[in-house]
Amino acid sequence: MKSLVTAIICGLMLTGCSMQGNLAKLPDGEFKRFEYHRAGNATSTHITAINAIKVGDMTEIEKVTISVDYGPFANFLILLEDYKR
Questions:
Q1: CA 72 to CA 20: how far, in whole Å?
Q2: Choosing a second label site near 7 at 20 to 30 A (CA), which of 21, 53, 70, 71?
Q3: Is the pLDDT of residue 53 over 80?
Q4: 3-state SS string for 11-69
């Protein structure tokens, strides 16, 4: 049970770190579709963002999907809809 709790906590920490770093990869301008893919020996990341528009100083993005693979032990799929930054 202790190992499961430790694994969940580590997973949540990795998700938080990867989400902020990956959201920084999104362009600050307007676009219809943006895709980013990075593959390494043990990890990979795929980001898809759809329909970004600038409203004043803010960028509004209809849908962002982030898929992060840390090997056989941790994989995350994050979906954001109506994201603003």
A1: 22
A2: 21
A3: yes
A4: HHHHHHHHHHHHHCCCCCCCEEEEEEEEECCCCEEEEEEEEEEEECCEEEEEEEEEEEE
